[in-house]
Amino acid sequence: MRTVVGWCKEAGIDVAGVTKATTGMATAALDYEECGAKWIASSRLEQLERAKAAGVKLPLLMIRVPMISELEDMVRVCDYSLQSSLDTLKALETEALKQDRTHNVILMADLGDLREGFFEKEELVDVAEYVENKLDGVHLAGIGTNLGCVGSVKPTEEKMLMLCDWAAAVEEAIGRPLEIVSGGATSSLIPLFDGVMPKKINMLRIGALVFCGPMEDLRTCYGREEADVLSDEVFILEAEVIETNTKPTHPIGELGVDAFGQKPHYVDRGRRRRAILAIGRADYGDIGDLVPQLEGAEVVMASGDHTIVDIEDCKEFIRVGDIMRFKLRYSAILRLTASENVTIKEKGR
Ligand SMILES: *Cc1c(COP(=O)(O)O)cnc(C)c1O
After folding, report:
1. CA separation (Å) from 145 to 112, 116, 187?
2. Which pLDDT score, from 0 to 100, does residue 347 have?
3. How far is CA 104 from CA 45, 96, 132, in A?
4. Counting CB atoms within 10 angstroms of each CB, which of 45, 168, 186, 316 has the fewest?
5. Does 146 sit in the ligand 1 pocket, CB within 6 Å?
6. Is any ligand 1 atom within 6 A of the Cβ of residue 206?
7. Span 2-228: which CATH code?
8. Active-site residue 200, yes or no?
9. Separation of 268 CA from ligand 1 center, angstroms?
10. Topology (CATH level 3) of domain 236-336
11. What does the mean pLDDT of the chain come to?
12. Distance between CA atoms of 109 and 92, rounded to whole angstroms?
């Protein structure tokens, strides 16, 4: 996070450190604070509450557009939120006045990724004017966008300029500058790396890159080498071996569907030694998100509670009771930190 904050600082950008990938580990929030992030952000209120309880002093930012039913808690727990509905903003005004607080909002612009946000510039400007002039408990702190998510839209220079154009339209309508123009998440570092990030963008909300480093999409999907200086071992999964029998690699019998209703393709590689681990898809999701640290090991298949690793080509001899270690991609970290079967051991804090 210190490295990421450094990159952003050079471009005049403050970082909101996003903890949701860790299921809101308080130590992640405390580390972010120490590393120079300016906000602690998460998609779940209880995770922000945990950061607060751990003594985080930074302002807290709710980055999943809130449910009306959680506004009471949200106003109590955090100072900032992303917003994309007038109804919610009106309900937020009522709640903020009731609690005698001012809540800061960042109105979201949907620039084509098709998740949260106002889709038309005029609508966003109208709502911004409404918040500015009609709501007393809600402060319009800025506007923002999110890209590279459900719609996989790239945060190009063009999209960043579009956000700046929307921000300028809001500023003209309300007659003052906005404090925040929030250009996106980890993927929005691409225009920053390319040196084309417009000056007006002054906040990014970063999580994934900090936990995955070169295992993150910036490297694996966009081939960006900048992230190679970051660690890809922030989280390591340790799993215990419960069987190491040698077996055929192709199932024997009439094939139907697997435990998840799928019809996988099995490659017949003859008989091979395979370790079974006492952890499964119930804990981490997809086998593709585990990367064995042991050379020659290959994760081949898994059910909810078992993971089968081909260890035939490993130089090290694996026995029942041994621990195998894996680097993790984003969604495995997200799930494993939330699994009640997994113990989180923290080093160095
Ligand atoms: C998850 C999320 C982020 C952080 O994304 P990363 O890819 O983890 O950096 C930022 N903003 C919003 C709105 C999010 O939902």
Report:
1. 10, 8, 12
2. 81
3. 15, 10, 11
4. 316
5. yes
6. yes
7. 3.20.20.10
8. no
9. 41
10. Lyase, Ornithine Decarboxylase; Chain A, domain 1 (2.40.37)
11. 97
12. 19
Q: CB–CB of 274/311 below 8 Å?
A: yes
Q: Whose CA is nearest to atom 3 of ligand 1?
A: 185
C-beta 185 within 6 A of ligand 1: yes
Domain ranges of the chain: 2-228, 236-336
Give pLDDT tens digits for 16-28. 999 999 999 999 9
What pTM value is reported for the model? 0.96
Q: Is the CB of 43 under 6 A from ligand 1?
A: yes
Beta bridge partners of 301: 308
186 lines ligand 1 (CB under 6 A): yes
Best probe residue, ligand 1, of 32, 65, 146 (max atoms within 8 Å of C-beta)? 146
| One-letter amino acid for residue 204 of the chain | L
pLDDT of residue 349: 61
What is the enclosing helix (H) or strand (E) of 167? Answer: helix 157-174
Name the amino acid, one letter, at 18: V
